[in-house]
Amino acid sequence: MRKVLDFLTQLSKNNNKAWFDAHKDEYLAMKARFESCAERIIAGIGEYDAEVRNLQVKDCTYRIYRDLRFSTDKTPYKTHMGLFMVKGGKKSGNAGYYFHLQANGESFLWAGLHCPEPAMVRSVREEISLDGDLYVEALEKAVGFELDKSDSLKRVPYEYPSDSPYAELLKLKSFGVTKVLDEDYLATEDFAVRVADEFRGVQPLVGLLNRAVEYAREMF
Asked: From edge to edge, which strands make up the β-sheet containing 80-86?
């Protein structure tokens, strides 16, 4: 991944069409490197999560081109590469496993349910309120990961008691855990194997969240 990170560093310094067009072949080579790594990560996760086993790389990756329609930032290209391994593919709305590759120490792993629809948020919160210990146990198994509170309410929603032992979980609007990756980690030869193994501990949480998603689809 070192060469891919070097390319992304250069892209962040030269985020314009002229530079990108002049380095298009290099980009395609780095994209191929990333996708080769992605195949190995998907295969590794598929060993313990059958919902991921048959995913194709194209189901999990994103275009380098930014959507500028509603953004004040008009730089045309993303300066990261992402891989979201999730039942039904990246647009399914399910919980899954995300690998974010970016230079300057901004690479990370994330797992969970990102920006879910209101019915799904309601379903997860209902499950937490009824049996929050299952979620606490799943979080304890996610060794090395931290609860992501970046998308969270300031207060517990009015439907739930403010003194709930699961208050921090009930405040969440996106439900996930995260782990920062340093560049030495990314440079190891067995990197893809290590990433897949890191995600093994978060599989129980992903499973719980997907159960709540399916319930929301059936009931709401």
From this structure: 80-86, 96-102, 107-113, 175-181, 146-147
Q: What is the mean pLDDT of residues 113-127?
A: 96
Q: How many C-beta atoms lie closer than 10 Å to residue 91's C-beta?
A: 9
Instruction: Record the pTM.
Output: 0.95
97 membership: H or E segment, kind and range: strand 96-102
| SS3 (DSSP) at 106 | coil
The tokens for 94 are 């399910």
What are the tens digits of pLDDT across the range 146-180?
999 999 999 999 999 999 999 999 999 999 999 99
Which residues are paired to 83 by β-bridges? 61, 99
Q: Which residues contact 187 (CB under 8 A, 6 or more apart)?
A: 1, 2
> 91 is written with which tokens?
């647009």
Q: Give residue 220's pLDDT.
A: 66
Sheet strands (E) in the chain = 80-86, 96-102, 107-113, 146-147, 175-181
Domain ranges of the chain: 2-219
